[in-house]
Amino acid sequence: DFVIKTSPVAGLILKAAGVKKGSANPKVIVGSITRAQLKEIAEYKLPDLNCDDVESAMKIVEGSCRNMGISVKD
């Protein structure tokens, strides 16, 4: 069977942050997104993630942000 998944998290984060690529070093911050943008990405990716609620999905997406050098603002 051919299963279609949603867009990759990294692409969604980069688009929301408005940067071309993430940082090679996670300690170097190259951009930021808001908590609302984080929630929007998490809700979009929820069917593909290994979790049941939006809060857990937000933590997964936030971890991806950290690894890419993108900070999450409140």
Order of helices and strands: HEHHE
User: Which regions contain 5 or more consecutive residues with pLDDT less than 50?
Assistant: none
Overall structural class, as computed from helix and strand content, comes to mainly alpha
Please tally the β strands and state the result: 2
The radius of gyration is 12 Å
Mean pLDDT: 95
For the largest sheet, list the strands in their spatial order. Answer: 1-2
How helical, in percent, are the residues? 40-55%
Number of separate helices: 3
Question: Outline, from the CA principal axes?
Answer: globular
Described by strand count, sense and barrel closure, the largest sheet is: 2 strands, parallel
Strand coverage percent: 5-15%
Distance between the termini: 41 Å
